[in-house]
Amino acid sequence: MTKPRLSRGIRTRLARAIGVLWMACCLTCSGSANVAGQIVAEGDQESKQAKVGLATPTPIGSHVEFTKGEKIAFLGSSLAERMNLFGNFEAMIHALNPQQELTIRNFGRPAEAVDVQQRSADYTKIDDPQAVFGAETYLCFFGFNESFAGPAGVEKFKLDYVSYLQKTAQEYPRLDSGLAPRFILISPIAFETPTDSLLPNGQTENENLRLYSQAVEEVARQQGVPFVNLFEPTLAIFSQQPGLQFTINGCHLNLAGDREIAKSLVQSLTGDRKLQVDWSQLETLRTAVIDKSWVHQQDYRMLNGWYVYGGRRTFDTETFPLEYAKIRKMAAVRDREIWDLVQGKKTAPKPDDSATGDLIVPTTRFGDPGQDYSEAETLRYLSPSEFIAETSVPAGFEIQLFADETQFPELAKPVQLNFDNRGRLWVSCMPTYPQWKPGDVKPNDKLVILEDKNGDGKADSSTVFYDQLHCPTGFEFWNGGVLVVDQPRLLFLKDTDGDDKADQIVHLLDGWASDDTHHSCGAFEWNNGGYLHMLEGIATSTTLETPWGPHRSKGDGGAYVLDPQSLKIRQFSLPGQYNMWCYVFNEWGQGFCGDGTGANQHWDTPLSSAQFQGPPVAVETTLPGSLELAAPFPNPARGRTTFEFAIPEGGGRVTLDVYDLHGRRLRRLV
Predict the structure, then answer these.
(1) In this structure, are residues 304 and 514 in contact, taking their beta carbons and an 8 Å threshold?
(2) H/E stretch holding 339
């Protein structure tokens, strides 16, 4: 059986309707804004080439065509990254260039900015995925995260953007020639005004986004590179009807919004303002693009980076370089499938990865004398009845089996459980843990509903609510559905037709740390005030993009506090805790946290504090032979919990004092 493919007649009609894409595009200046985007290119060839050392640009008024096999990459914030979810723009590029066999990779990331590209520690220790790809053309999507600096940040943004282009041109030259790549600068989109008063109303946001869109255009004119204005056309589209029609929160596109952006980009790059697209004819191609994009994401955003390339890459150093190589070959297989589809060739029911390389199975450390401290003499896997028989419980307590993996195989590797308002037990299971293995089927981690229908105290039915998750370390019920981790994203899943299967899937927040998949966002718990607390371990890199601005955290971990309705988020540190797995509140609203590293339980209330990202503060005291650390703090650190350690030079008593929010000493603990 073969997949449906685009017929020659459909491809011909689509190509005629859209014209030749730019990147097959006509570099013409456009006047007023309309439903289509605008593209601008200024300056003669000599002045353009002198700006940032870019490849020779195309003269104004001519068409720029892709060379066969050209490599194209997307850079920037979630506007670019979320194209991985929908694939509309990339599908259109391929449909318009069927014989060019273009290779496209998306390197977009949440909270990305021209002056902040936060990565996990040692991200490029094995290699740099962007450098290995070696793009010849970059589409740059910046300006949204930077816009939260307001009018005062515009000039800095323009300077930073120029520096970013220069740095990218220098560090990521074209692999085919060693020359600098081509750049196309794309403005941020407008903010869609929601009817929900808990979200930003978009007025201030759009005032700032217009300024930053104009700033991107100024940089493009200065550097002599093409510019696409998406702000004005999306502002017009978003204003047609009240409420969220094209975004999930005002700033992040849904499927309908992604289609409008894809259409607007193509209209801008081709100059065809009357473009009409039959999306149903692109569906098979779009599905193939999404599959390829997912495989590529496992390359440039591979889970479990602390073990892959980071600080815990110690015992096994051979496995992951082979996995990177296999993933890239798997992406190439999917490139071929996409090209065959647009060329009208037959394709297999699924991509064939048999020739993408073999992986090794590293030797286990079980039995190594160095592991004696943590290993039993023999491995014993107890059955449920054996476990109950061998477990001691306090007087008056009893362990009863409700459900187990022998009865319900879908219960493999359970990680969190919760009861809904119908008394059913929900369990998140992640057999993919600690991460997906290249060549295996896509991750099928799941949410399972167990129900005791006859009241005998044992589950007699199991329903898989959703089975396309990747390491779901936490979930919680909300708004008639479920919030659940799908690393590196947080999803909202809902059953709208009553069959206990998720049919509404919203990618709510992206950018959660996945450096160590069991340190990632998890252990969900509502606090007494109705906010969701989520724990994160250390040695992690989180970059969240929200309607209120970016939230970044690196290495500190702690607890996130989320209002899912407004998507406001904050974070506080939990000093002395490293691998937090459980969280509860007492009747007074005080938090208690369990740390898996030392099996310790912590009363977090007296230790919780806002994060301070500045350098350590050390002040010499008048006391002979002592040094006070972190007291008194300067202004940026006010409002944080502070401690004073006094360490005599010649030894002796060490003291620990606690200060209030204003630097006043409260008491001496030690």
Answers:
(1) yes
(2) helix 319-342
pLDDT class of 260 with cuts at 50, 70, 90: very high
User: Residue 537 region, left (φ>0) first, then alpha (ψ -120 to 50), else beta?
Assistant: beta
Q: How many whole angstroms separate alpha carbon 381 and alpha carbon 588? A: 41
Is residue 643 within 8 Å of 626, Cβ to Cβ?
no
What pLDDT was estimated at residue 290? Answer: 98
Measured between alpha carbons, how far is 191 from 189 in angstroms, rounded to an integer?
A: 7
Tell me what the pLDDT averaged over the chain comes to: 84
CA–CA gap between residue 377 and residue 371 (Å, rounded) = 11
Phi-psi region at 441: left, alpha or beta (left = phi > 0; alpha = psi -120 to 50): beta
Sign of CA dihedral 110, 116, 122, 127: positive
What is the per-residue burial (b if ≥16 Cβ within 10 Å, else e) of 104-118? bbbbbbbbbbbbeeb
Banded pLDDT at 613 (limits 50, 70, 90): low
- Please report which residue ranges of 367-476 form alpha helices under DSSP H: 384-390
Residue 318 has a CB neighbour count (10 Å cut-off) of 9
**Amino acid letter, residue 519:** H
Confirm if 468 and 442 have CB atoms less than 8 A apart: yes
Q: How far, rounded to the nearest angstrom, does the alpha carbon of residue 289 sit from its chain's CA centroid?
A: 18
In the predicted structure, residue 18 carries a pLDDT above the cut 80 = no
Q: Quick check: pTM over 0.90? A: no
CA 212 to CA 230: how far, in whole Å?
12
According to the model, what pLDDT value does residue 279 have?
86
Residue in 256, 231, 261 with CA at minimum distance from that of residue 246: 256
What is the band of 372 on the pLDDT scale with cuts at 50, 70, 90?
A: confident
C-alpha to C-alpha distance for 256 and 572, rounded to whole angstroms: 36
Q: Are 458 and 452 in contact (CB under 8 A)?
A: yes
Let me know: does 245 contact 194? Beta carbons within 8 Å.
no
* Between residues 554 and 46, the one the model is more confident about: 554
Judge whether 236 and 210 are in contact, CB under 8 Å: no
